[in-house]
Every structure is written in C-alpha cells, then in structure tokens.
Amino acid sequence: MNFPAKIAEKLPVLGARFAHPSSNRGLPKLRFLNSRKHQIRGFVLGLSTKMEASDLKTCGLGLGDRITRAVLPATEDYVNEAIQAVKQGKVIAVPTDTLYGFACDACSAEAVHRIYEIKGRKQTSPLAICVGDVKDIERFAVTDHLPNDLLDSLLPGPVTVVLMRGESSILEKSLNPGLDSIGVRVPDSEFIRVIARGSGSALALTSANLSGQPSSVCIKDFENLWEHCKYVYDGGLLPSGRAGSTVVDLTRLGKYKILRPGSAMEETVAILQRHSLQEDRQ
C-alpha cells in the first residue's frame, strides 16, 4: 500500500518512509494471537490484518483526521521505541490479547505513579504485572507450590494468576505496597511480550481507560488520554467484547479461587481441575 505524499505529510513519525519511494515498504502486517487469560484488575488482545485506511476508520481514525506523533502501529518495526520508552520510565498504551492497556516499568515508582494519575485511580487499587514468558514469573512470584506444567497450561493467554511475592521477588516494594501477592499476566500477544522481554523487567499493566469507565477495544476509546502516553500503539479493533482476563488466586497450596470471571473462566477452571486443584470456598 503506497500513501500519496500529502497523506505522508500528515504522518510525522512515518512520513519520511512513505514520502520516498525507494524506502516505501508500506505498513507490515499486524501479528497478534488470540488467547485465553487475564490480570488482577487488568486487560489484553488478538487479531491479524493489514493496516489499511479501512482499519484506521474502524476505530474512527480516518486518514483525514489529525494523527498525533505518538500513534504508531503495533508491529515489530516499532517495538524498539516501546522498549526504550519503558526503560526511560514512560507510560505507553498497547493492545493485548483482551483489551488495550497502559504499561510501564513495574520497578519504576515514578512510572507506576504516573499510571495511577492517568487513570484517576486510587493507589490502594493493585496493578498486575506482565512478563514476556512463563519462565519469568518465578523472578517476581512464588511458583514452587504449583503442580508441574500448570502455568504452562494456563499461559500465555487471557488469564491473570495471583501469586505470593515471596522474599526473592525483585519487584519494587512501592508497587502495590502492603500486599503480599501480585497478579501476573503473560498475554497471548507477541507485541507486548517482546516489550516485556526487551525491558529486562516486568511491565505494570492496567486497562487503558479512566477508572470506572468501559474498557477499550480500540485506541479511539481512550483518545482523551493519548497525550499522557509516550506512544500509543494501534493494533486495530480487538475482538474481546470488552471482557478482560480471568483472574485466579493460586496463592494456597492445592486450591484456586476465581476472583474475576473474565473472558476465559470455563477453560481456566477446566485446566485447574485437570491439575487436581480444588476450589477455595473461603
């Protein structure tokens, strides 16, 4: 897809690429994988399509509209900008396997505080974290009481697992102060997972909306908050139906408790029971 020069001029960040035929490659395909999990009061994605003009219009962002310098496609070509922004303590907005979310370095107290400010959320409300791979979870939470392969069966996907931090957790104490547990996500979305890996840390993750407002399945849904993000990454319209991840408490040996049904409750419960966990009714 080749953009005319006039359209290229309206895309400040990408204009240089589209304005010169020799470097015009068009926008690459979005690559997102549908999944099945969730986060403690969190969110995420799924989709695969080309970023044509029709896709922009799907979210109410036609080519005739003003596109800010901060909006970029959620593709591998732009993941390095996201990683650098996170390392610099900035907040970014990204698609996941369920909803759009705000993300930042979970070990940066300043960045975490900024997310609370953007959402207008009380700092007593906990944030979940996102890591790149299931094996990374043990850096931040206690997992040795869980059945073998349980986490690999649940994740990646639209599920948030709540675990104890433990003494070996490298998370900053300023994240969710006073809580001994932490909600952890591994979204089935390669874009955000690459960012988490590249950051060398965990991402604090929460839905991209004002506290108490409907969740966002399109960047237009939270357009009023774009200005507070270093970058807004557009992954198109997400098919989640505004359902976030399923949140399950796995802090007790041999027990589970569903804290939020979310988008994958039935599948999650089936996996938990297959691993001989019993529902905690306390």
From TrEMBL:
Belongs to the SUA5 family. It is found in: Cell membrane; Cytoplasm; Mitochondrion. NCBIfam families: L-threonylcarbamoyladenylate synthase. It comes from the Eukaryota. GO terms for cellular component: mitochondrion; plasma membrane. It comes from Papaver nudicaule (Iceland poppy). Interacts with RSC1A1. Keywords: Cell membrane, Cytoplasm, Membrane, Mitochondrion, Transferase, Transit peptide. Its EC number is 2.7.7.87. It holds the Pfam family Sua5_yciO_yrdC. Cytoplasmic and mitochondrial threonylcarbamoyl-AMP synthase required for the formation of a threonylcarbamoyl group on adenosine at position 37 (t(6)A37) in tRNAs that read codons beginning with adenine. Catalyzes the conversion of L-threonine, HCO(3)(-)/CO(2) and ATP to give threonylcarbamoyl-AMP (TC-AMP) as the acyladenylate intermediate, with the release of diphosphate. Participates in t(6)A37 formation in cytoplasmic and mitochondrial tRNAs. May regulate the activity of some transporters. InterPro entries: DHBP_synth_RibB-like_a/b_dom (IPR017945), Sua5-like_dom (IPR006070), TC-AMP_synthase_SUA5 (IPR050156). The keyword Cell membrane applies. Residues 76-264 form the YrdC-like domain. GO terms for biological process: regulation of translational fidelity. One of its GO terms (molecular function) is L-threonylcarbamoyladenylate synthase. It is a peripheral membrane protein. This is Threonylcarbamoyl-AMP synthase. It catalyses: L-threonine + hydrogencarbonate + ATP = L-threonylcarbamoyladenylate + diphosphate + H2O.
